[in-house]
Amino acid sequence: MGRDLSRVSVVGTGSCLPNAPIPNSKIDDVLGRLTDAPKRVRVFSEGFGPSYLESSGIRHRHFAIDPATGRITHTCADMAADAARRALQQAGRKATDVDLLLLATPYYDHIVPPTSSALQERLGIERCVEMEIHSNCAGVGKCMQIAFDALRLGRYKTALVTYVQHSSSFLRSCWFQQQRMTKSQAALRYILADGAGAVVLEGGHDGRRKSVEHELLGVHVESIGGLRPAGMTAGGGVAALTDGAGNLVGLHEAGSHHLDQDFPTVSREGQILATEGTLRMLEALQLESGQVDHYIGSIPNRVLYDQGLAKFTSLLKADREKVKFRAVDSGYCGGASILVYFDHMVRSGELRPGQTVALGAVESSKWMWGGFVVRW
């Protein structure tokens, strides 16, 4: 006979927003100015930056950069470790209690060893199972899926899920081959920010119980871009070095390593896919929209929020106050955003006992979606 699956609870949340908040007027000073970019890119940047920032709804953001020197102050593992320590402290657990350590990130500290092992070292964990998921905004959902299934089966008792967004490493002026820059590549400097989030999950709860405190009700992950062109790209891997004379110098000279985004498609499709992903998650978990008290999404600016709000609330039959724009003072931290917002809600008391929160994010790189639901 089969056994009852264990229930899983969220016992701690944490986040890291590195260094002092940076006001909109100081972004170019911190990231470095694009003095060698083509004139059309410089003119665009000088016009787009102020106009976008004025309408973005964001007042401050954070960068893992020393404003005085331009040096990186935090690596990916550093930010993940800061968020993880806060989550562990809130949970009342030691790092050595963790037997499953998961980290997602679109970037990394080294090609090898994986950043997840660097995080393990920083936390002082001698032995555990560690895994790294190479993903952007859907990475949180992917890690949560692995942790949820493993804890329900009883394979592990305590899991630490982390996500880190180190945008500044590929937004600084020194990163670019500036003469090869495009307008869309320059625009991303005013959109992305740095941050990390973490949650501590615990299994072992009797599956026959009706509920447990802070229960993770389920996870939903899907890749919906199998036949779609990529919406966000950055080279620098094997595919950019296939030429017989290919080398890192040539890659940099061509600007193949630049982060780029298809803004028209992302603006047109992003909110639609976010809404559809949330609907499919609730359906898969057999939840009605009326049972959800808060929706947390990964939304980069106020304009996209306003454009998508009516459709989202209409299709989900949700009140507008359940769907807030939350990036005002944190900036848009990509995949880390939903964990950062989740942590802020928990610590501020906005998320009250008994309430249900649905979190999810669309990843435009190849159109993926990942999310989870917690009854607090």
Write up what this structure looks like.
This protein is of the alpha/beta class. It has 2 domains: 7-205, Peroxisomal Thiolase, Chain A, domain 1 (3-Layer(aba) Sandwich); 215-375, Peroxisomal Thiolase, Chain A, domain 1 (3-Layer(aba) Sandwich), CATH 3.40.47. It is 33% helix and 21% strand. It is built from 10 helices and 13 strands. The chain has helices at residues 27-31, 39-55, 76-91, 115-123, 139-153, 183-187, 248-254, 263-284, 302-316, 337-348; strands spanning 7-16, 22-23, 60-61, 100-105, 129-134, 158-165, 195-205, 215-223, 232-234, 259-261, 294-297, 356-363, 368-375. It has a 5-stranded mixed sheet, sandwiched between helices. Strands 8-13-12-11 form a 4-stranded mixed sheet, sandwiched between helices. Strand 4, helix 4 (115-123) and strand 5 form a beta-alpha-beta unit. Helix 3 crosses helix 4 (115-123) and helix 8 (263-284) runs parallel beside helix 9 (302-316). The mean pLDDT is 94.
Keywords:
five-stranded mixed β-sheet, Peroxisomal Thiolase, Chain A, domain 1, 10 helices, four-stranded mixed β-sheet, 21% strand, alpha/beta, 13 strands
- β-sheet strand percentage: 15-25%
SSE order = EEHHEHEHEHEHEEEHEHEHHEE
In the CATH hierarchy, the architecture of the largest domain is 3-Layer(aba) Sandwich
Spatially, the strands of the biggest sheet line up as 1-7-6-4-5
Give the N-terminus to C-terminus distance in angstroms: 32 Å
Mean of all residue-level pLDDT scores: 94
Taking all Cα atoms into account, the compactness measure Rg is: 20 Å
